[in-house]
Amino acid sequence: MQLSARDLARHIDHTLLKPDALAADIAKLCAEAREHGFWSVCVNGSRVAQAAALLEDSEVKVAAVVGFPLGAMDSDAKRFETEGVIDLGAQEIDLVLNIGRLRDGDDRYILREIRDVVEAAQGVPVKVILETALLSLEQKRLGCSLAVEAGARFVKTSTGFSGGGATVEDIRLMREAVGPRIGVKASGGIRDVATALAMIEAGANRLGTSAGVAIVQGHSGAAGAY
Question: What's the number of domains the chain is made of?
Answer without folding.
Answer: 1
